[in-house]
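Researcher: Before we compare anything, I want clean individual predictions. No alignment, no superposition, just each chain on its own. First chain goes here; please echo the sequence and then give the structure tokens.
Model: Echoing the first chain and its structure:
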Amino acid sequence: MLLWKRIAAVGAVTSLLAAGTATAAQPPDGASRADATIRYTEYGVPHIVANDWVGLGFGQGYAAAKDNVCAIVDVAVTTRAERSRRLGPDAPPTSGVSQASTNLASDLYFQGLNESGAVERLLAEPAPRGPYREVRELIRGYVEGVNKYLRTGEITDPACRGAGWLKPITELDVYRHAHAVGMIFGQGGVADSITASLPGAPPAGAGREQMTGGTGIGSNAIAVGKAASANGRGVSLANPHLPWQLSGTRLWQSQLSLPGKLNVSGAGIPGIPLMWLGHNETAAWSGTATDTTRTYTLFELKLVPGSPTTYLVDGKPERMRRTDVSVLSRKADGGLERVVRPQWTTRYGPVTTRLGQRELPWTASSAFAIADANAGNLSMTNSMFEIARGRTAGEMIGAVRRTQGLPWMNIIATDDRGRVESSQIHGVPHVTDEKAARCNTPLGKELFDANGIAVLDGSRTACAWGRDRDALRPGVFGPSSLPTLSRDDYLANSNDSYWLFNPAEPKTGFPRIVGPVRYEQNMRTRGGFAEIAGQLAKGGFTGQAMRDLMFSHRDHAAELVRADVVGMCRTMPGMEGACAALANWDGRSDAESRGALLFDRFWSTVDRMGPGIWKVPFAVQDPVDTPNTLDTGNAAIRKALAGAVAELKAANIPLDAPYGDNHYVVRGGKKIPLGGGTAGRGVYDSLGGPWDPARGYTEIVHGGTYLHVVAFNGTGCPDTTTLLTYSQSANPESAHHSDQTELYSRKRWVTERYCEKDILASPSLEVVRVSRR
């Protein structure tokens, strides 16, 4: 029996029209309860319809695998701890679900997790701590869909075609993937150290991790309400920033419809059903990573003299738990060897001897354990499921409160009624400022004010995490103790703290671990607020106004300093070419902008110099417009400009070269120039890549991924445009490997087809039925 049953276009449209043209699709006549119907429209976007949750998951899994099967199985190989065996021990992992620096370190980390049985215990929990029934059914169907596609043998992606590791996935693989994503900012960030820490040995780990994140996960999000929109209804912007090459956090676009129960369009991660961000008929949500919130703490342990693996708690000795973790690894000759490494765990969590660049020596008298608030969290899919069904912004934030499964995401929602809501309800250790003052060790006192990182005294049970009565899990803050905000004009976030989602309503009063207040905002936050204010001075937001904001490519740092830099430049001998390039630059980071690259290299140095670069310092009363006025008398700043000129000349790049000549990706051997720029310059369309002194920027590797602008209009068919910057498929053989990347280069959008009448009107419509049988 054919795996794909292709329906002739005329027949398909007739069948679907017979089912009606309501917002929610009806499955075609004759579809069994286990079948899914996939309608493909422009740029390979699938619209999936089914009769039940299993069928819906099945269709999504099949369609996701068709585009990104290598990415899905790559993550499964990772969480099964099979990378060293399949791909060799020394290469860096491509999955991105931890910050392990090698396949061997990744395997040892995940094998340790697997042997602990943590995910299986969480699966045994009743909902909402364990998955909802509907979520379990979605995941069951999803796995069947992925595996059905694997059985077609239609794998053309050279990344995995014919690979021995391309095996069917399991439901447990999906849950392990979700669990790992939740710990990226915490335990997963010190995977190298967890797998290599030994008493008395030098601090382990390669130092790849950063204390305050280092995952490459960021975002912009804006939600506009009735007081700031042209028609009195909501407008949503989504702009997550993620690594472009890592499979575990790659985004993929689809629409899921189960008549009467769900009709959501948006983007999620291949390998995990449902959406990270998107919209339904009447509400939309986007999200940002909480770079300023800590989802973990350290505990400093007092060790028993003469026994470095025994620590004291309230004066009583307690032994660490040793697990000799064993994985198979491929040798240079192709054979296999068994690698065994001990891992040490405490009541608080695993022992680590490094946090980013900070060494945490395991001495004869002390050691450190990392405690992750999301180690006991498997509810992310519950939260995604409930958010997608929210009919208003308030219902979406209510879903976050009920499920409490988001590990580290802020949610910003808006709706057809023009209300906007935000939530920072996610996994945050229950460490009040009072407890931090009582329990922080000297290292904790140093780190807590600066970075929000608590290092608590592990020798006292009184210093363990607390618990809120409304928290579903022990040891974390409940929803009533975490920030939310509701307005009717706008809310926005660009990875700064909860303090300033709207400059008109600064929010304070939450523990330091939740985020700082009254501090200098990042340049992207400031630039975003400046652009919002500029639009509101002209009139309310429309969908087009939001699209213009997204792709304005204004360089906010340049808007603050360029005139002063040009003036400084003209006092520096031999800099005439640089001065002309900066003076004639249009101040934007479009692909054709000339002078942008020179400013980029200059600002990449200056931005690391700290607050001393400004004549006017940060003022809490004016957080959007301060600090300002570059101190051009600072010799280091003058040196930075000369250094930028030297960099470009060394790479044989003209000082006024078009930006896109050296800011690009290559697809199918073709260089695709890109605009956008680094977050440090305040370019809202954030993009970045490595700088090669001999060639300049090489390929872009990080930045904007799935973009949407959803503008509600009261019809149930919102005016929505989307863009998946790296396109739907990672497979270079796919027709949808670079088509949207080409659009992105030209600042063009895809008009979404959400309602039935629009899906059926697509000139690219292809209707496919796939069956579990």
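Researcher: Okay. Second chain, same rules.
Model: Second chain and its structure:
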Amino acid sequence: MHDVHTAPYRRNALLVRGRVALISSVALLPFWNVAAAAEDSAPAKKPAQISTRKGETLPSKTAHVRPAPKTQDHEASRVENVVVTSERRADSPQNIGTSISVVSAKMLENRNINNVFDLQYATPSLQIQPSYGSGQYTYTIRGVGFNNYASNNSPTVGIYIDEVANPVPFGINGMMFDMQRVEVLRGPQGTLYGRNTTGGAINYITNKPTDKLAGGVAVQYGRFDSGKIDGYISGPINDKLKFRLSGETQQGGAWQYNPEAKAHLGNVDRGAARLLVDYAPSESWKLEWNLHGSRDRSDGTGVYAWEPITSLSSTNPMPASSSRYNTRWGTSEQFAKETGLTPDQKPYSHIDTGGSSLRVEKHLRDFTITNLASYDYMQRDEYDNFDDSSLSLADVKFNTRANVVADELRFSSNTSGRLHWIGGIYYGHQWLNDRYQSGFQALYNTDGDVRYSQTVNTISGFGQVTYDLTPKLQLVGGIRLEHEKRTLDNVYAHYLVGGVVTNPQNSIAQQSQSYTLPSAKFSIQYHPFSHDMTYFTFSKGVKSGGFTVYNSSDVTQMTNPFKPEQLYSFEVGNKLILPRYNLRVNADFFYYDYFDRQVQSIAYSPTTGSAIGLFVNAPRSHMFGGEYEIEWSPIPGLHVAQSGAYVEGAYDKFSAVTSSKQVNGVWVGVTQDVSGRGIEVPHFTANGSVDYTWRVGKYDLVSGVDYSLRTTSTALNSANTIPGYTLWGGYISFAPHKGHWKIEGIGRNITDKHYDVTRGYFVGGDNIAVAGRPATWEVRVRADF
């Protein structure tokens, strides 16, 4: 039991530790630069051309070229040189004063990263969980996340594909194919990316049309009869028009088993395609059109009970699962009738998406005008069993449609002087219609039916300026003012007994909330040597408020909005490259002041005493930690990469409902001061890989091993605590030096570690978990022309 009397002392100790860590890091960073001094003896070289992809260099009008003393001289280095567009312009991440990880196309291939969930095992501080095993993921960076299985609220991590934002969480969980790279930005990114990036942002950058005709296909087969085929064709139509058509399909892979129904679960059935068309009618005009769509008819993910199920009876509980990979499903005749299912229906997650975007650029003498317009449509039809039982304890059905229309007009400098700037306006409109049904027949002889629609309108203006005080010292300042209005319409939260609504009055015509809040950034970037940068960055981020919209006997309670959260970030870091030693070492330290953090708490039904999820605001909390990334090639052919993160945090001011009691026959919640308690996050995460390339005549043989480690994630409620684990993987490939084919083998979780990716409970007395995948292997053959 938490001792509330000691909470203030622990809270103060944590605050002191966090601030001391930040101040100490500032003091220690100058010593970091000593190693770079030996590398700076040679005179500065002419800046190298920045290349966005093989064979294609950026025009001088759009490339932001740093002064000579800050040049990253990579020509003699075996450390991979990358270019990112996280600041809405092309630059080396070593020149940007924020924490960025870049997952290259090579890493995506070697680790067989097929979707957003796998991305967390390739970058520090990122955690991704399926909410109770649903098709909607929770994204957390540096402990900043929003755990929600409903469709109407925004995440704390912004997801972008070629700069187009998707604020609907389930709409981005499709396949990752034909990718050039993925950029993971840590910390608030509100100035350039807007609201809902208090945790950070993930940018997916797709491969673009090529100047010469090219194409390729890859076929993959793996354990559990999983298969994947992807391919592309790209090239010019004429001297002004070029295209790229790519697609992928995934099938099979059922890795879970129902011992009662003697049936497997987990088969994938997905397909997606993307058409890119680039048109350049003149040197100053460029148009990029993107048309994309996906169709998913996959099985869902089953949960397992890791403790005996006491929901129905505490004296005669149902047994826990005999294996992590066993799961059970089933529902009542009544709930099946209400939802159009069958009582023995397998869990499934069917998500369809489609959309288009048009980017238009006009280059003038001193600046560039860019307009990015987009439309995306998403549909979610999903059935989940959240109780690991053939009884109707906690069955849920989602039917959601959403569309997003957005337009961003921005102006950016393209000169090579001291001042570099970008500014613009953004408008977005989001519409969502949702029906969320729950089956509790066996438990309460009741089913739930929640219906509503939601519109979100946002408009913002933003600007950011970089000024070179000297060739070695830059100041960066930016601000964004954003207005959002979020409105719920026609909300119904009904309970049904025998198909008859028992509380028809539990509805509300409309509920809305709005805010106008600024985001900001200020950064000092200092380059003491030609391959080293030290920076201090302050940034403020804002996440939208919202509505809980779960089952509740009080629709006013469930539609009572929770407020926007605001995060103030202080970060210091150093980015160092030693070309002579083929070594890159980046490190950062951060401290967060968190106001009105959005936390999932609970309320209690006054009649049954059952717990109901409810989002509330924790008035004050804090977090601190640090990250490192190391890349090293000590000898030709050998490549070593290591990264890690330490994060700690606690609530400074927060009273939460932790239990219930009966007062005059009515169940009420009991509130407890939880100030000083730690925030749910694995304190330490680490990822790494080692690979070596052997030259075998005209061929290359590459082999490597990788790992991902995370410590235990402790939660306010012990049922949500996720034990730590370490996963190991392996990779081998064989291909000609300059050939057009490759044979690859990939192993994931090769030690067959048993672990969980999420834990919790949907109804009291039924502690469930989603198991991580067992050992898998894949063989892939790729051919290009």
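Researcher: What stands out in the second chain?
Model: Residues 7-32 form the longest helix (26 residues). Additionally, The radius of gyration is 26 Å.
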